[in-house]
Design brief:
Elements: H1 16-22, H2 65-77, E1 82-86, H3 89-100, E2 106-110, H4 115-125, E3 131-135, H5 140-145, E4 151-157, H6 169-179, E5 182-186, E6 204-208, E7 222-226, H7 229-242, H8 248-257, H9 261-280, E8 285-289, H10 299-305, E9 314-319, H11 322-332, E10 338-339, E11 349-351, H12 363-368, E12 375-379, H13 385-397
Helix pairs in contact: 2-8, 3-4, 3-7
Bound molecules: pyridoxal-5'-phosphate.
The site of pyridoxal-5'-phosphate has 15 residues, from helix 3.
Length: about 400
């Protein structure tokens, strides 16, 4: 919790909004600075061999005080015993796989997971003799059927980017437990405002902090938060070997931006709900996917697992008329919308997964997970919903 000045707090059990602002952070003892300073230093001078590490830090490649504060904050928010920050979401994913998979081991991955995660499986660990099965995590029977005697890791993505497939986390935990494997969940697209996978018993949660933790299109970063300190120790050891820690400057930015995550996610979810509802009725639109819509195939699961009655800022639409119409839509869409590859920030963005995040997949593979030619990913920002809807309406009408 908020250890340094615990005595001044009435309770360790604070609400999410309070934790987002204060967890991990306390005024700097020498000056009273309310914001955590950026400790832009590689080395921390030691008193003696006997007192090596007495002040907790030696070399920023292993641990930096600004990064450590962000790690303490995220550990609290994710209900983890320990968290480690990385230079990117991909660094967090690669280090997690490297920590738990050896030659001859097997990992079950979502067939709709993030494009670069699929590439890491095929081109990196696959080449080193790790086996992978790609299955539909919406279907627990498929996950169960994929288990082999050498299965060490079940890797879910919640929700999947960009298809928004949800997973019954408790059911996957049960399969993992029976197999003696770990359940790791990349919950980047949800954020802890929507779901806290560790509260469901998941072993490890991963975020690309680039997305909702940052929320301002400002930084690239990642985090791995572990339920057990033992798993955390492995992650720490492999982060050192990979040399992929977060920089103090990025940690500082993320410390500030994460304080408003609850305000942003409320607005983003509200905008997404209104935009999805508007798009669903539009004659130029073939289909809309948003977990807050009654028509969403997993609406009941979303309702059961999501916190605060919120379903996040991500949705997708499928335009009638295929690739040509999608190109025209992306080219002519009015501001405040922008066309770009990031998500989760205050600026509303549209993207084209087939040529961006999922360009590694063949047309047949894309179709297999519902990314048809008219598919557009939408990341809702915090602008006024009416302005966003008006821009969509005028653009769609002119298609
Ligand atoms: C963006 C993203 C990543 C990769 O994160 P980077 O910070 O870009 O390395 C991993 N998983 C998901 C679901 C993502 O959306």
């Amino acid at each position: 919790m908020i250890k340094a000045d615990r005595h001044r707090w009435l309770s360790d059990h604070l609400q999410m909004a309070t934790e987002l602002v204060h967890a991990g952070v306390s005024p700097e003892p020498h000056t009273g600075a309310i914001l955590t300073p950026i400790f832009q230093s590689t080395v921390f001078v030691q008193e003696s061999v006997e007192h090596y590490l007495a002040k907790g830090h030696s070399y920023s490649g292993s641990a930096n005080p600004t990064v450590s504060v962000l790690e303490a904050k995220i550990a609290t928010l994710e209900k983890a015993s320990i968290a480690y920050c990385f230079s990117s979401g991909m660094a967090a994913i690669v280090t997690t796989m490297a920590s738990f998979l050896r030659q001859g081991d097997h990992c079950v991955l979502s067939h709709a997971c993030y494009g670069t995660t699929q590439e890491v499986a095929h081109d990196l660990f696959g080449q080193l003799g790790v086996e992978f099965s790609f299955v539909d995590f919406r279907n627990i029977a498929q996950v169960e059927a994929a288990i082999r005697p050498n299965t060490k890791l079940l890797f879910s993505e919640y929700p999947t980017n960009p298809t928004l497939y949800l997973t019954d986390l408790t059911a996957v935990n049960a399969v993992a437990q029976k197999a003696g494997a770990k359940h790791v969940c990349d919950s980047t697209l949800a954020s802890p405002m929507i779901i806290c996978p560790l509260a469901f018993g998941v072993d490890i949660v991963i975020h690309s902090t680039t997305k909702y933790y940052d929320g301002h299109n400002m930084t690239i970063g990642g985090v791995v938060a572990c339920a057990s300190a033992e798993d955390g120790a492995k992650i720490f050891a492999y982060r050192n070997k990979h040399g992929s820690t977060m920089s103090p400057m990025v940690a500082f930015f993320t410390l500030q931006s994460s304080k408003t995550m609850h305000l942003r996610l409320r607005e983003q979810s509200k905008n997404a709900q209104q935009i999805a509802t508007f798009l669903e009725g539009h004659p130029k639109v073939q289909a809309v996917g948003y977990p807050g819509l009654a028509s969403f195939p997993q609406a009941a699961l979303a309702e059961r697992q999501h916190k605060n009655g919120l379903h996040g800022g991500m949705l997708y639409l499928i335009l009638k008329g295929g690739a040509h119409i999608r190109k025209k839509f992306l080219k002519t869409l009015y501001r405040p919308w922008s066309f770009g590859a990031n998500l989760g920030a205050v600026e509303s963005l549209v993207s084209c997964p087939a040529v961006m995040s999922n360009s590694n997949m063949s047309p047949a593979q894309l179709n297999g997970i519902g990314i048809s030619e008219g598919f557009v990913r939408i990341s809702c920002g915090i602008e006024d919903a009416q302005d966003l809807i008006h821009a969509l309406e005028v653009t769609l009408t002119a298609l």
